[in-house]
Amino acid sequence: MIRVAISGAAGRMGRSLIQAVCQYEGITLGAASECPDSPLIGSDAGEIGRVGVLQVPLVDNLDKSKEAFDLIIDFTRPEITLANLVLCRDQGKAMVIGTTGFTQEQRQKITKAAIEIPIVLAPNMSVGVNLCLKLLETAARVLKDEVDIEIIEAHHRHKVDSPSGTALRMGEVVAKTLGRDLNQCAVYGRQGVSGERPRESIGFSSLRAGDIVGEHTVIFAAEGERIEISHKASSRMTFALGAMRASQWVSDKPPGLYDMQDVLGLLKKVN
Ligand SMILES: NC(=O)C1=CN([C@@H]2O[C@H](COP(=O)(O)OP(=O)(O)OC[C@H]3O[C@@H](n4cnc5c(N)ncnc54)[C@H](OP(=O)(O)O)[C@@H]3O)[C@@H](O)[C@H]2O)C=CC1
Ligand SMILES: O=C(O)C1=N[C@H](C(=O)O)C[C@H](O)C1
């Protein structure tokens, strides 16, 4: 039985993760944490996730429960993830990271820690999005430089980072396949007299409204036809169950930085 700790347990993803643990065979909830200021500290995680009492009280720091878990699942904010990363590295525990919005420097810290512990880091843990990443690779390979590429994403009004981690990953996959450097060709929104579109640019547009769970569309537009690859999440359980799959997969892996593509066995080229 793999004992997981959920960081940010009362958050949108935290609550779905508690529910997913209860649905998933071979995984149990060992610990759960929340913001030190939260009035929910001490409450039972099962009650927070509406799955009945689990006898796991929320702590303000997972260091306090370190004997109770083998792995941390973290869907929070970059600075919280990095604090948990130090704990996991010091304790030799694995990590599943779903948090997005890391800076280059923060990503390097994760890469460095992965020399010592196994880490799955993925901006989107749904099977559907990870399949879309393979489809995008194929589309870019076939369409080459003959199309304009635009990425549109929509999320709920509480989301703090943009573009979404998934949109950026989609851009990276397409840019890499076409031999472009995303740092050079990305265009984030347009306003005013922005000029004619250079063919090689990859455009990003972000929409924030209401309770949208997460929607991504990549448009490949040519003269006379347009291809769109879209994914629409209607429940956070799709991400949470992906995180369970990643937890089970990573629990017996050697140190290293892994992606959801590793977990799902999608790394081989699809034609
Ligand atoms: N990879 C994937 O598949 C997915 C990734 N995400 C990413 O996951 C992240 C979280 O998203 P979401 O659940 O919507 O965000 P939320 O803000 O709902 O959840 C984060 C939680 O962490 C809590 N928190 C704050 N400080 C601490 C602390 N020191 N220790 C423990 N918990 C703390 C927050 O509390 P408080 O609100 O009081 O600050 C909040 O409850 C985002 O980066 C998002 O992009 C989301 C969905 C899928
Ligand atoms: O913040 C969210 O909600 C989501 N964030 C992830 C991202 O930034 O890509 C994944 C998902 O779309 C939901």
TrEMBL record:
It is found in: Cytoplasm. Its EC number is 1.17.1.8. Its main location: cytoplasm. One of its GO terms (molecular function) is 4-hydroxy-tetrahydrodipicolinate reductase. One of its GO terms (cellular component) is cytosol. It is an enzyme of class 1 (oxidoreductase). It comes from Nitrosococcus watsoni (strain C-113). The active site is at 155 (proton donor/acceptor), 159 (proton donor). Pathway: Amino-acid biosynthesis; L-lysine biosynthesis via DAP pathway; (S)-tetrahydrodipicolinate from L-aspartate: step 4/4. NADP(+) binds at residue 50. Residues 2-125 form the Dihydrodipicolinate reductase N-terminal domain. PROSITE patterns: DAPB. It catalyses: (S)-2,3,4,5-tetrahydrodipicolinate + NADP(+) + H2O = (2S,4S)-4-hydroxy-2,3,4,5-tetrahydrodipicolinate + NADPH + H(+); (S)-2,3,4,5-tetrahydrodipicolinate + NAD(+) + H2O = (2S,4S)-4-hydroxy-2,3,4,5-tetrahydrodipicolinate + NADH + H(+). Residues 128-264 form the Dihydrodipicolinate reductase C-terminal domain. This is 4-hydroxy-tetrahydrodipicolinate reductase. GO terms for biological process: diaminopimelate biosynthetic process; lysine biosynthetic process via diaminopimelate. Keywords: Amino-acid biosynthesis, Cytoplasm, Diaminopimelate biosynthesis, Lysine biosynthesis, NAD, NADP, Oxidoreductase. The keyword Oxidoreductase applies.
